[in-house]
Amino acid sequence: MDSVPDMLQKLKMFKNQIYQMDQRVRLYVSDRKKYGHPFPEDLINRIRAYETILHRYLAGFRNTELELWLDNLMYSLQVYEAIWKRMLEGDAQGSGTKRGKDPYPDPSVRSHPIVQKAFELEARQWSKLGICDTETEEELAARILEQYHEASKNLKQNEKLVLSYDLRDHRVQIKVRASE
Question: For residues 66 and 82, what is the distance between their CA atoms, to the nearest angstrom?
């Protein structure tokens, strides 16, 4: 049997493989002709087999860190397995067409650093001025990313993009300023 650090390393490796499989499933669902079927069942079976081995190992004593990592891995596997099943079943029924709102929106929109900074600035200004939220983060992302891409296309070497708060509209805008 492996040592405890080796077991922890293997659990971390399985966690990374879950994330990689999720990416492959999403790519497959987006374009079945371009990407091959990812077969998530193979990974699921390997992880469950390793779980059985670890439970035999942990039967006689407690290793809290190892148990926590195993519980975390199995919870992630359960969640992603349900997601993959829904995605692959939905893909088989609709062959890639979207039905209703996507329950897994594009993470790049909300996690874009400019959107996060703009939303924080806007929320700070609204609280200073006593204004209720007039714009959701998704609405801000749609508006600000468009401005950001347009402004960055026309950006010259001695210019930079800055966020500024417009007191008339009570919204954050992207402006081009000369760099110092």
Answer: 24
List pLDDT tens digits, range 97-110. Answer: 444 444 444 544 45
CA 99 to chain centre: 21
Question: Quick one: three-class SS letters along the chain?
Answer: CCCHHHHHHHHHHHHHHHHHHHHHHHHHHHCCCCCCCCCHHHHHHHHHHHHHHHHHHCCCCCCHHHHHHHHHHHHHHHHHHHHHHHHHHHHHHHCCCCCCCCCCCCHHHHHCHHHHHHHHHHHHHHHHHCCCCCCCHHHHHHHHHHHHHHHHHCCCCCEEEEEEEECCCCEEEEEEEECC
d(CA 112, CA 54): 39
| 63-97 pLDDT per residue, tens | 778 888 888 999 999 999 999 999 888 765 654 44
